[in-house]
Write a structure and sequence with these properties.
Distance between the termini: 31 Å
Order of helices and strands: EEEEEH
Oligomer: single chain
Length: 93
């Protein structure tokens, strides 16, 4: 299963290589934006875009509402996973 994490593109780092800095829940990292650039959406147009990031690539653009909802769901899944792990560790063997 592929999991895309929402992030917001903050700046372009290298136009030729299509590299940009993205903020993913407060963590900044460099990603490749080649998959979201086309004749109608230039490298410079990507600044401010919300994107789904997977293994260092912006796989698709999403709107801010989709980003917020996805982040909410991922947080809930993480909390549920942590609770299940806590239950597993406290189970009598």
């Amino acid at each position: 299963m592929c999991l895309g994490i929402p992030g917001k593109i903050l700046k372009i780092d290298d136009h030729a290589k299509k590299l940009a800095t993205v903020d993913v829940s407060g963590v900044r990292r460099q990603i490749n934006i080649a998959c979201i650039v086309n004749e109608h959406h230039s490298v410079d147009d990507c600044v401010g875009d919300w994107v789904l990031v997977h293994v260092g690539f912006a796989m698709s653009r999403i709107d801010e509402d989709q980003a917020a909802e996805t982040l909410k769901i991922l947080t809930e899944l993480g909390e549920a996973q942590a609770e299940m792990e806590s239950m597993r560790l406290s189970a009598v063997h």
